[in-house]
Amino acid sequence: MAGSLPVGAARALPATPVHDATAEAPWVRRTLIAVAALFLTLFLFVPLAAVFYEALRQGLNAYWSALVEPDALSAIRLTLTVAAIAVPLNLVFGVAAAWAIAKFEFPGKSLLTTLIDLPFSVSPVISGLIYVLLFGAQGWFGPWLAEHDIRILFAVPGIVLATVFVTFPFVARELIPLMQAQGTEEEEAAIVLGASGWQTFWRVTLPNIRWGLLYGVILCNARAMGEFGAVSVVSGHIRGLTNTMPLHVEILYNEYNFVAAFAVASLLTLLALLTLAIKTLVEFRTRRELGEANEEGMPVAPAMLPAASALAVPAQAAAFANESVCAAQPAKVRRPAAGADPQDSLGWTS
C-alpha cells in the first residue's frame, strides 16, 4: 500500500517542547520576592530605622552627649574588652577542637562534637545560672573564692566566662566540616617532606582554613558584643563597672531616658553592621578566589581555597616518593639472550 511503513519500522513521533521542571511561573517568583521583601521591611529595616530616628530625634548634640556620658563610655570599653578576651580564647579552642575532631579518632569524639553544640540549645540565662551555681556565695567554689578574695561573679571575670560559654561553638562549627572535607592528604604529604608539626600547621593547615577561621571569628565577635542574657545574670548590673552596652541600654530604657538608650543602641547597631560588612567582604573574597582557581583548573577545597603552597605539596611529595622508590631499587644489568648477537640490542634481556 502506498504510504505505508515497512514492517518493523518505527513511526516518528511529533516533537514536543521540553520545559524546565524546576522553572517557576513568573507570578510565583514575584510573590516569593514580595513576601521576602515585606518580611525584611517589617522586621528588619523599619526597626533599624526607628532606632536611628529615636537616637537623633533631639539632635546631634543630645546624641553625642549620650555617647560620651561616663557610664556609657564605661559600657563601651567593657563590651570591647570582653570581646577582645573572649574571641581569642574561642579561637584557640575552636582550632584545637576542630583539628582533633577532623583529623583523629579517639574515645568520646561523638560526645565532644555534641557538647560543642550545647550553647546553641541552652538558654543564655541558664548558662549564667550555671556560673552562679559554681562561683556564687553559696556555690560550690564560693567559700574558697571568698577565702582567697577572688571575685568571679559581679565582676569582669564572670562576664568573660559567660561570654565565652555562649560563643565558643562559632569558630569550631565553622572549621569542623571544612577540615573534614579537606582530609589529611596535604598534612601527610608535608610530613613526608620533612615538615614539623608547627610547620605543617602554619604552612599547610592554616592557609587552607584561613577564610573559614576568619568567618567564625567574625560571628563570634558579633555574638560576644551583643550578648545579653548570660551577662545579665552574672554582672550584677553595676553602672560604670559591670554593665556592657546591651545592659546599659536596658537600664536607660527602664529609666525612660529614651534618647540615651537609643543612642547607645544605635552605636551597637553600627558595630553589628560593620561586622556584617566585614563578613560580606570575606564571603566575596572567598568566592572570587574560588572562581579564579576554577578558571585556572586548580584543585580547590570543597568550601575554601587552599593556598598555592599547600596545593604544591602533594605534587612535591609524589616526586619525592618516586625518587625514593627509584633509589631503593637495584640497578638492572642487561645481558644478551642465549644465541643472540651481542651487537644486537634487541636480543638483550634484563
Automatic annotation (TrEMBL):
<dbReference type="InterPro" id="IPR011866">
    <property type="entry name" value="CysW_permease"/>
</dbReference>
<comment type="function">
    <text>Part of the ABC transporter complex CysAWTP (TC 3.A.1.6.1) involved in sulfate/thiosulfate import. Probably responsible for the translocation of the substrate across the membrane.</text>
</comment>
<dbReference type="InterPro" id="IPR005667">
    <property type="entry name" value="Sulph_transpt2"/>
</dbReference>
<feature type="transmembrane region" description="Helical">
    <location>
        <begin position="114"/>
        <end position="140"/>
    </location>
</feature>
<dbReference type="InterPro" id="IPR000515">
    <property type="entry name" value="MetI-like"/>
</dbReference>
<keyword id="KW-0812">Transmembrane</keyword>
<keyword id="KW-0472">Membrane</keyword>
<keyword id="KW-0813">Transport</keyword>
<dbReference type="Pfam" id="PF00528">
    <property type="entry name" value="BPD_transp_1"/>
</dbReference>
<feature type="transmembrane region" description="Helical">
    <location>
        <begin position="258"/>
        <end position="278"/>
    </location>
</feature>
<keyword id="KW-1133">Transmembrane helix</keyword>
<dbReference type="InterPro" id="IPR035906">
    <property type="entry name" value="MetI-like_sf"/>
</dbReference>
<comment type="subunit">
    <text>The complex is composed of two ATP-binding proteins (CysA), two transmembrane proteins (CysT and CysW) and a solute-binding protein (CysP).</text>
</comment>
<keyword id="KW-0764">Sulfate transport</keyword>
<feature type="transmembrane region" description="Helical">
    <location>
        <begin position="152"/>
        <end position="172"/>
    </location>
</feature>
<feature type="domain" description="ABC transmembrane type-1">
    <location>
        <begin position="76"/>
        <end position="277"/>
    </location>
</feature>
<protein>
    <submittedName>
        <fullName>Sulfate ABC transporter permease subunit CysW</fullName>
    </submittedName>
</protein>
<feature type="transmembrane region" description="Helical">
    <location>
        <begin position="76"/>
        <end position="102"/>
    </location>
</feature>
<feature type="transmembrane region" description="Helical">
    <location>
        <begin position="32"/>
        <end position="56"/>
    </location>
</feature>
